[in-house]
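Sanity check record (used in CI):
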Amino acid sequence: MKSTFSIPFDITAPQAVWKAMVIDMPMTMAASSLRFAAQRLQAQADFLSSLTQCRSVTAAVDVQSTFAQAAVNDYTASATRLMADAQQAILRKAA
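Expected output for Phasin family protein:
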């Protein structure tokens, strides 16, 4: 029975490409993820702080809606940026 498993990269690739895939790309992704987590935690703190200033349910709902929309936008932008950063980390070393 023939295996359908295939390796997604050239096993004979130069050492620089392996380093890019095994070290540089994961480190880049980790750094980017930690930066994003810090930004989101700051946004959460700002959101909670702004809730304390609300004097009505309507104001609180508005603050919540703004926060939720910003979170969706931030997650979308971060995912796009994370993939671009990972790709660049590999391509920089592979070139």
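The chain has two helices and no strands. If this sentence no longer matches the regenerated tokens, the check is flagged for review.
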